[in-house]
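Limitations

Structures in this collection are predictions, not experimental determinations, and the ligand pose is part of the prediction. Treat each record accordingly. The example that follows, with NA7 as the small molecule, is included so readers can see exactly what is and is not provided: the inputs are given verbatim, and the output is the predicted complex.
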Amino acid sequence: MSDVTNRHHEVVVLGAGVSGIYQIKCLIDRGIDAIVLEGDDDLGGTWYRNRYPGARFDSESYTYGYSFSREVLDEWHWKERFSGQPENLRYLNFVADKFDLRSHMVFNARVQSMVWDEDSRTWTLQLADGTTYTARFVITSIGPLSIPTTPKYEGMDRFGGRAFHTWAWPKEPLDLSGLRVGVIGTGATGIQVIADIADKVGHLTVFQRRPNWSKPLRNGPISDEEMAQIRARYDEIFTNCSASPNGFEHMPRWGFWDATPEERRALWDELYDQPGFAILGCNYAEIFFDEKANQEVSDYIADRIRARVNDPVVAEKLIPRDHGFGLQRLPLETNYFEAYNRDNVELVSLAETPIVRFDETGIETTAGHHDLDVIVYATGFDAITGGYDRIDIRGVGGVSLRDKWKDSPTTYLGVLCHGFPNLLMVAGPQSVSGSTNFPRAIETGVNWVTALLDHVREGGHTRVEPQADAEEKWVAEVQRAHERMLFRRSKGWFTGYNSNVEGHNDGRVRYQAYFGGAPRYTTVIDRATADGYPALELS
Ligand code: NA7
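Predicted complex:
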């Protein structure tokens, strides 16, 4: 067992979320002296923090769970097709307890800086409480959506009620009945929380800047019998996920223009009724590349929204005009659009009537004042690179990673970075973690990082760094994949846009994730392994 009181380890893993849990398991299985440093007071990452009502998977639960352990697959019973946050957190604790991983984790250990020392070939990590650790290798599993961002409106600090980001939803039960609640933001999170609390609050005001496309999640219970069938099919499920560009059991098709409009509509009728991301994953691939194809499917979904919202004026406000269907992260919902048919729910379009200021009693827009008891910021995250920017990471010669990535991240395969030896990123920028079924991408990343560490250690090496030109080549591949797709113009976290973060809101594209698809990514990284890592300098 790792001695967590020790301050030097061969490997320090940052973050005890979905990826950190699997990563530490792989390391201790190999007898490597490794610990996890976690900033929060418990494990679970995203599923520890996102306690807001309505928080749940929108990946099928059985494709979200780990595939690495037959025992876990056999013992765990997913109760819902799209499992909710409390159950998801229980699952992560079940896995951690089963393999006694908690004893390799240090909590309340928030790393503030990491400095590379070339002479000793170690990283020195400074924690917020002043404690220092050293490590030969650092593996970051700090999450792509772990730095919440809030708007900056005049008077926000004067608000007299409770106000919090969805990421910091209070741990203690919060009774919203009878209260006047305002939700700012209508991304994947806002849509989940709005749909969930609409019938539980006194009055709900939704402050929407830009509407998002969304379609029904179609959740449901998983019976014992169905779970047995899923267990019997696990190998096939994970094989299907690996074969698909999106990492789900959904396989896109080409042939949009070979089908008649009626055939296309028939397919969409079918996909709209299917659970999860089938409407994206099994759709004609042309909708992501061809504007006319995308316009047609967008018109179809717009009609679906109109059919669900009673007030036609409200319906039109809920239909996106600035981006086509599937060109930003698609939220999935349960009765979201129906929430606007309730008498206690009001939609405020900030595009028409922007927020002027907050005050003691609520929010004032150009159209008037909204009295509120609670304000919920569903305003998103400093996505993908935010977790790295928060730590002052200094590589060779004291170069800052924050500076290197100022305009856009640059990596080798989304895992390593020139000038930052022995830093290995799981689910890092320019991997497929932001663009495909997240946990499948995590397992791919952890397995690759672990195999690389085996190679480095077996060779008796103590230093690994990618060559500069290999990094340039990967960035060019990331850009190539990005530029082909229509979503390149959309203002969402996929493209690094965040109106509340300096440098992420000035129209410049940030190449945050690899959009070449999971199979292509896996082929590239597997080839690097098979070829003996020719792009890496090992010594
Ligand atoms: P998102 O998808 O980034 O959505 C954030 C929402 O907050 C979006 O509707 C924004 O409007 C809105 N927003 C952000 N800043 C403001 C300000 N200043 N004023 C008004 N509205 C604002 O974050 P989510 O948390 O919903 O989802 C993140 C991921 O978490 C999600 O994809 C899942 O994978 C889990 P905008 O569209 O920018 O006009």
